[in-house]
Write a structure and sequence with these properties.
This protein has 94 residues and is mainly α. The chain contains four helices and no strands.
């Protein structure tokens, strides 16, 4: 299963509950991260680690700190849904 499809599968139930608009935004951020990782050649969430998240932060340097923080919150949820330990690294302030 490709990583983007894996994230879509994991987040399907997540979007159905709670504040719909916010969860749709969070899901789109999770999918953007998955597409970034797929571009790096990763095929599943099991292959994703800190280096991939850092690479993603480097690619989003043009975004505001508040937007990058929102992306980080989406990654925290993705990490929880995937059952990964700890949290993904936070973006550094520009």
């Amino acid at each position: 299963m490709k990583i983007v499809q894996e994230v879509e599968q994991l987040t399907r139930a997540y979007v159905r509950k709670g504040g719909k608009d916010n969860r749709r935004q969070q899901r789109s951020r999770m999918l953007a991260f998955a597409e970034h990782c797929a571009g790096l050649g990763q095929n599943s969430l099991g292959q994703i680690g800190r280096a991939h998240v850092v690479s993603y932060w480097k690619s989003t340097q043009k975004l505001s700190n508040a937007t990058r923080y929102n992306h980080w919150r989406a990654l925290v949820v993705l990490w929880q849904l995937a059952g990964k330990p700890e949290e993904p690294p936070k973006p550094r302030a520009v």
